[in-house]
Write a structure and sequence with these properties.
Length: 259
């Protein structure tokens, strides 16, 4: 575990597993931190070198002033790989992390082995929706966003059954830096990978939660249609499918990366 200054921001990261094995980078969703990957890291680190990090403005990573773009967030990953002397890696990204993964695969293909895009889309939401959310947290802080998060992240059944897990995720979201969260909302407001994903050549697995209201199964199918030889797998989960269906998610990712 460490923190290093890259692209003007101190980025917090953690490594698990044997450094001599291939590396897999895990990229978190908006409003979470690297702990969202605990279940997957435990599985993947038995066979791979696992590198996970807090996206700038999240968790232990800084939220420097100034505009944020998906290109900058992707450049952070490349800089982190350079810092750790890792030439190429698998990339697994969920939601916003999946958009970062798309950018990396399209703009730095020489740095990727395989790509997993979970609960993501080439275009997530609308510009006006993201701008409104950014304005809300800049004005009112994180409490209202955190209060409504379970309905976006999980099925009602999971929320009722796993209140401790859901409460912990809400606590993490509530503790995020409002400006860091808002800056990433601004990045998503203008992020549109639809003209870029056709260039992705890395073997790609697209994972969809069949109950996901944010990035739908149709979004996943559109990704897979546009990316050469991509495949789609579904999980009985909502948006944070790696938390709602952790064992099956880990099995899918491990099976794909290690094949």
């Amino acid at each position: 575990m460490g923190t290093t200054l890259l692209n003007g921001a101190a980025l917090h990261y953690r490594c698990d597993g044997d450094r001599g094995r291939p590396t897999v980078v895990l990229s978190n969703s908006l409003g979470t931190d690297l702990s969202m990957w605990d279940a997957q890291a435990a599985v993947l680190a038995t066979r791979l070198h696992v590198l996970r990090y807090d996206t700038r403005g999240h968790g232990g990573s800084e939220a420097p002033a100034g505009p944020c773009t998906i290109g900058l967030l992707g450049a952070d990953v490349l800089a982190l790989l350079d810092h750790l002397d890792i030439e190429r890696a698998h990339v697994v990204g969920l939601s916003m992390g999946g958009v970062i993964g798309q950018w990396l695969a399209a703009h730095a293909p020489e740095r990727l082995h395989k790509l997993v895009l979970a609960n993501s889309a080439a275009r997530i939401g609308s510009e006006e929706g993201w701008r409104a959310r950014a304005a809300a947290v800049r004005t009112d802080g994180m409490n209202d966003i955190a209060a409504g998060a379970p309905g976006r992240w999980f099925t009602p059944e999971f929320t009722a059954r796993q209140a401790v897990v859901v409460g912990s995720m809400q606590k993490t979201l509530r503790g995020q830096h409002p400006e860091g969260y808002a800056a990433c909302c601004d990045a998503l407001a203008v992020a549109d990978m639809r003209d870029d994903i056709g260039r992705i050549a890395a073997p790609t697995l697209v994972i969809a939660g069949i109950h996901d209201p944010v990035t739908t199964l149709a979004d996943a199918q559109q990704l897979a249609h546009a990316i050469l030889d991509a495949t789609v797998a579904t999980l009985p989960a909502s948006h944070l499918s790696n938390i709602e269906a952790p064992d099956r998610f880990s099995e899918l990712v491990a099976g794909f990366l290690l094949a």
